[in-house]
Design a protein that fits this description.
Blueprint (H helix, E strand, L loop, with lengths): L4 H10 L6 H23 L29 H6 L4 E2 L2 E2 L7
Antiparallel strand pairs: 1-2
Length: 95
């Protein structure tokens, strides 16, 4: 399957893409390469191939979710360089 430059322009318009003539030429060649590759994949016999859910057989090994003692609010504030009642004070970084 091949596409022409008019089809590329229509797809670009629908996707709200803009490019110069040189960029349009590159997109045209890349698009046709992708479609040629898809044609090759369509010719491959996949009758006895199971669909993949994941790319590898690896399974996530997750640690046990255990509750630990954590730092209390008052303890955290006691070591803060600047604090304001219940909050840490930090320099303003948004304009």
């Amino acid at each position: 399957m091949k596409v022409d430059k008019e089809t590329i322009r229509k797809i670009a318009h629908l996707a709200r893409l803009e490019f110069e003539e040189k960029g349009e030429e590159a997109i045209y060649h890349d698009f046709n390469k992708i479609l040629d590759w898809m044609d090759k994949l369509n010719k491959v016999n996949t009758d006895n191939v199971e669909p993949l859910i994941h790319m590898s057989a690896e399974v996530n090994v997750l640690r046990e979710d255990v509750v630990n003692n954590s730092l209390k609010h008052e303890e955290a504030l006691s070591v803060a360089p600047k604090k304001d009642s219940d909050y840490f004070r930090v320099p303003k970084f948004l304009g």
